[in-house]
Design a protein that fits this description.
This protein has 223 residues and is α+β, with helices and mostly antiparallel strands. The protein folds into 2 domains: 133 residues, Sandwich (Jelly Rolls), CATH 2.60.120; 77 residues, Arc Repressor Mutant, subunit A (Orthogonal Bundle), CATH 1.10.10.10. It is 47% helix and 23% strand. A hairpin with a 5-residue loop joins strand 4 and strand 5. It starts with a helix and ends in a 5-residue tail after the last helix.
Length: 223
């Protein structure tokens, strides 16, 4: 369960965002516009300042598989800086958004003048790796409805609201399953009285009950 709590620590605090602003170019992207494509090798850090950015990839059939949604304070592109790796995902504006693009030379200057940024990014990368390993373990071990419960709980921790405004199709995209499978998983969670259907999303009925369900269902001791 620790990875769910850890994800929130990857969001850059507002005071750090302000430190970054003079070192990059703040660009506005209209909803559905491409920010960068998979395979691009331009080195730089991208920082979401406002709006929402979806990260994912297109399959051979043209379908889009979403990996995550980024909001203010979220960063991406770190691997291009620290390992000279190409961008692994397609980044697209989910809503109108503003993204600070910091090229490598400017990033080096930023971290030289503000070492706290280096410490934050390094810790953030470690947490993201930890989260990715836990997610891989979830896919290999856990039933889809348990994975869905973890996704809903993660959304609650991020927003602090028991109402989660995600559609059935959104859950399917995030979990990499069909809409029918997502529907069946939601039905199981309704039957367990962990969540209830609301207009435009779902609501957690009892947070403590959901936490208990996830601890019992993970079959691994918390880290």
């Amino acid at each position: 369960m620790s990875y769910i709590h850890g994800i929130q620590q990857t969001i850059m605090p507002d005071e750090y965002v302000e430190l970054c602003l003079p070192f990059g170019t703040l660009r506005t992207y209209a909803a559905t516009s491409t920010i960068h494509e998979r395979g691009i090798k331009n080195k730089g850090l991208s920082l979401v300042v406002s709006g929402e950015v979806k990260i994912g990839n297109y399959g051979l059939d043209g379908s889009y598989q979403i990996t995550t949604v980024l909001r203010r304070g979220d960063t991406f592109g770190e691997f291009t800086l620290y390992a000279s790796l190409a961008r692994t995902h397609h980044a697209e504006a989910l809503t109108e958004c503003k993204v600070l693009q910091i090229p490598e030379p400017a990033y080096r200057s930023l971290t030289s003048q503000h070492p706290a940024i280096t410490e934050f990014i390094t810790r953030s990368l470690a947490i993201k790796l930890h989260s990715a390993l836990e997610r891989l373990d979830d896919i290999r071990r856990l039933p889809t409805h348990v994975q869905l419960a973890k996704l809903i709980y993660q959304s609650y921790l991020t927003s602090k609201h028991v109402f989660i405004p995600l559609r059935q199709s959104d859950y399917a995209e995030r979990l990499g399953v069909t809409v029918l499978t997502a529907h069946k998983s939601l039905t199981k969670l309704y039957a367990l009285k962990l969540i209830e259907k609301r207009y435009g999303g779902v609501a957690i009925t009892h947070v403590e009950r959901l936490e208990g369900f996830l601890k019992e269902s993970s079959s691994l001791l918390p880290l």
